[in-house]
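Why show two proteins at once? Because comparison is the fastest way to build intuition. When a single record is shown, students tend to memorize it. When two are placed side by side, the eye starts asking what differs. So, the first record is below.
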Amino acid sequence: MSKNLVIVESPAKAKTIKKYLGKDFEVLASYGHVRDLVPKEGAVDPDRDFAMRYEVIDKNARHVAAIGKALAQADALYLATDPDREGEAISWHLLELLKDKLKDKPVRRVVFHEITQRAIQEAIRQPRDLSMDLVNAQQARRALDYLVGFNLSPLLWKKIRRGLSAGRVQSPALRMIVEREEEIERFKPQEYWTLLADSEKDGQGFSARLALYRGEKIGQFSVTDGHTAKTIEKALLQAAQGRLRVLKVDKKQRKRNPAPPFTTSTLQQEAARKLGFSASRTMRTAQQLYEGVDIGEGSVGLITYMRTDSVNLAQEALDEIRTLIRQRYGAHNLPHQARHFKTKAKNAQEAHEAIRPTSALREPEALKGKLGADQYKLYELIWKRTIACQMIPATLDTVAVDLAVGDESNLFRATGSTIADPGFIAVYQEGLDDAAGEDEESRILPPLAAGEWVLLRGIRSEQHFTEPPPRYSEASLVKALEEYGIGRPSTYAAIISTLLQREYVVLDKRRFVPTDVGRIVNRFLTQHFTQYVDYDFTARLEDALDAVSRGEKDWVPLMGEFWEPFKSLVEDKESSVSRSEVTSETLDEACPKCGKPLAIRLGKRGRFVGCTGYPQCDYTRNLEGEAETEAAAEPEVVEGRNCPKCGSTLLIRSGRYGKFIGCSNYPKCKYIEPLEKPKDTGVTCPECRKGRLIERKSRYGKLFYSCSSYPECKYAVWNPPIDEPCPKCNWPILTLKTTKRRGTEKVCPQKACGYSELVDEAAADVAE
């Protein structure tokens, strides 16, 4: 009986597929990529049509050997790596490594957009040839990234600091984050005031905003100081005489349509908003759901392929979704025809589907307890979004009421809405980036009719200031990258991870903040490699790679167009730009010590202001203006204490992460301690039962709580501890966890336990 060898990328997927194909098929995993460029200069040779030198990845050599051994016993080879450019390239690399063992055996390429019995068996029946267009597009991408990295990174080492890197798509992403931070720093708040009337009708209170005063329309900046606001407030109170007249009531009905099913980008955005997942965490969990999870009936693929920019849904999936909506939510929630969405992404791969459950009938509730916590949350999100996209629109009744003060020259306006028919909202509603508090239209107003009077309880003026644009979150950064066409869905997680790993940015309250090094690198690239961090240029290059993947463009001329001017620019900047020019930024300010210009410079501890006359003049200060001259920088002696290790004097020193207490006998004695005494939570360590849990800061400034007897006891938790045993597993402490989605809750820090209980905000404040 013939044996067919099927190669997939992961062992989890191999296990799931094996049970669907039967005894005639052997399924093995390549464990991801099998070859990569040799990690040294010359791996891509521009003089030989960009010929590439590959080598087997060490950790996967034994898997390649196992595949070769199995191929010797097989009659046919099926390459079933992921259905994208990267998967196509992995199949080609395998084929190149297995040439000697293939002989005349047939090689077939199959792709699985979902890991279900029907999809797998159908794909096996409809194999195709390997697509060299897709392979060449991936090779071109890899070669471009290599050439940029191997030429720009050493330049950064020479001009800024060793260990830095520059990437073809990471650099424009860094530019986005830095430019947003600079925009925030330049921002000057503008003061404005609003006037609100607090009214009441039949015991139901509501508020209205001043829209017209003395016949003039009131805009955002019509009232810009408190004195004017109080004058208007006083005049209106006097004119109103304790009541307002309903002048006009406008009632309308509007529809709100559901969002389309998930693409890679929108899944990453929504998982960040609703679940607090990073892009890499989202993709890792989605990969598990796609490859297969044991849910009691063996390993089953629960979602379709998670790297896609299409919003299409297969007809059979639509039929199943509509059947479920009819049965679970009623026929009235089902539109007459299935809803079809149009893909907005450039060059979307329409052959792919959107991310959806492989079976809509597999409801999340039925899988609870069978999936890991992250798997369940993400599957529920995907399932709800998919079902909601095929339901009727939500119907909202909106109302706008004009309330007159005295005559009709002074008007307050109240707006509100009610949900007449929830439609898809009963299942799912899309999250928003940086939502600005309560939406006035979401307020519910009492029944009002033109001509009637309502009670005026008071008029109040409120001071406001305009706010700068928010820093990028993971969700809003992914959205911006997609809008600009920078990178592709499968690269967003890697872009973000690289920026964080290189310490070009840090996350502060889940927002990206550029570091000093990140700013310097961005300034160097935007000033000297302007074209290559230009958003449009990066997007056009992505479009060109897409054209290669469709067979519309040859990859070698594309590489030539990029390489020649890029190489010339690198060589020019290497000789024409000095290190001091890159790492310092001259200020329009003279040194108070010698009169020479001051500059912002980069040191070991970050950016500082220093004299351009250094080393003749040693004047320095920090960016906030505090002097750091040689005299000021002299370490301060800690009075009344000596080093507990060697008895020497203790000093207050400055380091990379701020001030600390250290021994004056350094480096012979390396004793250090924090300058400020850590906050004692009063909670006994549940592990050693000797120390107390104290509040500490991580290297990135994030608070955590660890045992005071560290390093003897290394117990630590991220959330504030409570001296209260878990009622479920009796672990000696609980922690307070606060999220936007669930609020504040008591949580057992033992992951296997899973205990949680909601608490009110007041109780949480007391506990902390």
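Second record. Ask yourself what differs from the first in the token line.
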Amino acid sequence: MVYHAAPASIYLAGLIVLAIAASVRAARWRRGRPTKVAIWRGLAAMPQRYLHDVHEVVTRDPVSGAGPGDSGKQSARMHMMAAGGFVAASVLIIPVHIFGVGGTPLAWLLLLTLVGMAVGVGMEWHRRYPRTPARLSKGDFSRLPFGLTAFVVFFIATTLPSAGVIGGLDWASIGGALLLLIGLYAALECYGGLAFGALHHALAGALHLAWHPRPGRFAASPTETGLAPLDLTADKLGVETPQDFNWNQLLGFDACVECGRCQTACPAYAAGLPLNPKNLIQDITLAAQGRTGAYAGAAHPDRDQTNATGGPDQALIGSDATIHPDTLWACTTCRACVEECPMMIEHVDAVIDLRRFQTLEEGGTPAKGSELLDTLRETDTMSGQPATARSSWTTDLSLPHIGDVESADVLLWFGESGFELRNQKTLRALIQLLKHAGVDIAMLGHSERDCGDIARRMGDEATFQRLAKANIETLGQYRFNRIVTADPHVYHTIKNEYPAMGGDFDIWHHTTFLAGLIDDERLAPTALPDESLTMHDPCYLGRYNDEISAPRRILDALGVERREMERSGKRSMCCGSGGGMAVNDIPGQQRISDVRMDQVDATGAATVAVACPHCATMLDGAVNAKAEVTDVAELLWQGVEANHELA
């Protein structure tokens, strides 16, 4: 058993380093605000979340973008073999080298595990060398293959005697001394790295999945995209410093593996706006550790933060702070970063928390955004127009106000579209379709206020809560079965965020409702002639609420040639309007809408179908676009009207 002493000592030394380093890291998480979590239930659920939910995110990517041939499935295999082998080997080392039990069979099992791990480590070498893809971070992560290789080499060499392959090792020889140095390096890099090195994401990631800020995400519940109400009586509103985040949010930020999937998916980053969501998470994490300047990945475009200062109790946002204000306000809140993150980090929640402090405490909203919020506070609309203008154009449609009828099956919510000529076309088509189908409808009209979505996304929680309560009170005065709206932002806000404010309503997006009318044969469109189109999925409909089939069912009923963009469905790219970006006017290399329309034009489709008034406005304003922008309801009315005329 003499040959067990060295590997046992190395292993135990690594565990001691891990325990010390992990306690230091945990102390940093505990600096965050207290919040309740289901500790034991979360730990019990963690293996399922790791093996199922994380695996699903990783493998669904046909080409992950980290390098040639690096698909999601290949990445999953690499992690399974390297990380899984490391965990299994760490367990098997205990009986084989610490207690010397199990004999030759267990030693051989350890050897086979290490060989499997070696294959995964080889894939990691191939992924990063000779050149690291731009999407991946360097720094500690560039050392990772070296540490894992040292682990494999040391424990294969020290396990061979236990397996009876070779005799005992001579630790007094030059080779033995060199092997000891390799083992010591492996222990520090791998076990110490679980707390302070590149492998820290493994430890933090497991705990983050156990105590996730949004546990409902693992139940595949779209409502987990809703924001929780802010306590407006708190001493501090929103997040100013890293330690103002909840402790499990700090833990979640620490789980970042810096894979760059969020970076690749981000519309702001693609357009050259000063936001890289991967860098944003590292900004917060490193500031919490007092290590600003240690990030080794792609930076926020056109934003030099090398001289930024920060710490756990210092402000995160400022011209000379860790995060520049332009970075914070460049986010569209589209959740593409969240959707693509294999560790399920909540980037958008962090952005909203930071914006709340800037807006409510500092008055730091960008100038145009501040003007919009002032208008919203004064008039209850974004446009500042009188409430009667929202529905004055419906005179010829004979659409009653809900207050003038005893009840209605469907209450139409216009949203800001009621004030805009472009999107009144969509509402007009929707009203005509519902009337043609014999649906009993009424409108809220001049009684309708803004739903509060943009106020909440820009950090003005006070205005959101006021508007939400006022709308809930108004809706409670009337009798109707359901609300139908053509605005996904209204749909999401009323469906997923009003319940926490005391308002529980049955609300439908217009595409879902119209698709149901087609299914029930209450709408029968004829095929549109020679029409080729592509579908642009709104973020707040597809990603936020998992509705991607209804618009396509309508388009298929029209007999059109549907050409899908590379980024479609829940992985669609934002139009650039969400989160107040349409008014914040943060400069970039391009407009997000122009980037998106380039993707539309790449399909060669003559029309891009939309299902959101904000998307229609943004894409209509794109420069040099070839495709025509048309709402699904407008296309459907064309088909229904044509069929009616033919009859």
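One difference worth noting in the second protein: The beta strands are 408-413, 441-443, 480-485, 507-509, 532-535, 561-562, 607-610, 628-631.
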